[in-house]
Amino acid sequence: MMNRFLVTLFCLSFIAPRLSGAADTDGNGPKLRIICFGAHPDDAEYKSGGTAALWAKQGHHVKFVSLTNGDIGHWQMAGGALAKRRTAESAVVAKRLGVTSQVLDIHDGELEPTLENRRTITRLIRQWKADIVIAHRPWDYHPDHRYAGVLVQDAAYMVTVPYFCPDTLPLEKNPVFLYSSDDFKRPYPFVADIAIAYDEVFDQKVDALMALESQTFEGGALGNAEIMAKAPPISLPELRRQWLSEIWQRRAGDEANRFRNALIRHYGKEKGPQVKYAEAFEICEYGRQPSDAELKLLFPF
Questions:
Q1: I want to staple 287 with a disulfide (CB 3.0 to 4.6 A). Which of 177, 179, 215, 296 is the partner?
Q2: DSSP letter for each residue of the chain
Q3: How far is CA 68 from CA 58, 64, 185, 282, in A?
């Protein structure tokens, strides 16, 4: 027991000063700073919302950034009105999770891996002083998702280069860059380097996602009148919540079963098999490569 305690103290003394949020404490140790990039105003919320709520409960700082404004992400409306609606929805989700949100004014479906966008993402990561950066993998069904992954990959090196975007201070250390999970097989399947149980905040995530009405209850870009007719009545929020909770019980339950080995690695042989709901992440080949000890500090749940 004493040896384990000494090892933990050594890891804390070695790793904690390297965290960008090391000066931001509440007496319970350094506070992490995490920025999650999604292509649209729902992607980060869906893929990282549970883990974000866990970080926020411990006083860490999380920011969701949508790289497009979602202005064609609905079957019945589009343009500025939809962009404003989806930005507002995303803000409510963030508030309910205890995090911050930002939606960039780039048209939905038109995200490109340009130099301008690389600079924007580099500045956002630097300004947030991120310890952890999360994004899509750079292969996906949607071009915005793919290019979000490419842009964040490109920023993984540039955030520490002083004369790239010299108007913002470079980071002294490279963050840990992570991919959120997906089902795509080529060029290789997603690998769960870390899986996080969010059973204790599952209801909080469902309550937060209730705000994404345009996507969750109206079908988003691929909806139609038939889907709308089958959706739980808008006047009966309790039916909507029950319906949404059942969907996420299946999704998050499937994620926990799919990445059970990663859960056991992180939580141990006693707790790992008991986890019901999970989110998983893969360490990007760019950026800082954390040790197992550092991962325990970056995901202190």
A1: 177
A2: -HHHHHHHHHHHHHHGGGSTTTT-BSSSSBPPEEEEEESSTTHHHHHHHHHHHHHHHTT-EEEEEESS--TT-SSS--THHHHHHHHHHHHHHHHHHT-EEEE----TT-----HHHHHHHHHHHHHHT-SEEEE--S--SSHHHHHHHHHHHHHHHHTT-TTSSTTSPPPSSPPEEEEEP----SS-----SEEEE-GGGHHHHHHHHTT-HHHHTT-GGG--HHHHHHSPPTT-HHHHHHHHHHHHHHHHHHHHHHTHHHHHHHHHHHHGGG---EEEEEEEEEE----HHHHHHHS--
A3: 29, 12, 26, 23
Joined tokens for residue 164: 């790239």
What Cα–Cα distance (Å) separates residue 272 from each residue in 19, 200, 268? 27, 14, 5
Tokens 């520490």 belong to 160
Unique residue bearing structure tokens 């319970």:
28
pLDDT tens sequence across 152-191? 999 999 999 999 999 999 999 999 999 999 999 999 999 9
What CA–CA distance (Å, rounded) separates 174 from 12? 18
Q: What is the pTM of this model?
A: 0.91
Listed by start position, the domains of the chain span: 32-298
Return the CATH fold of 32-298. Rossmann fold (3.40.50)
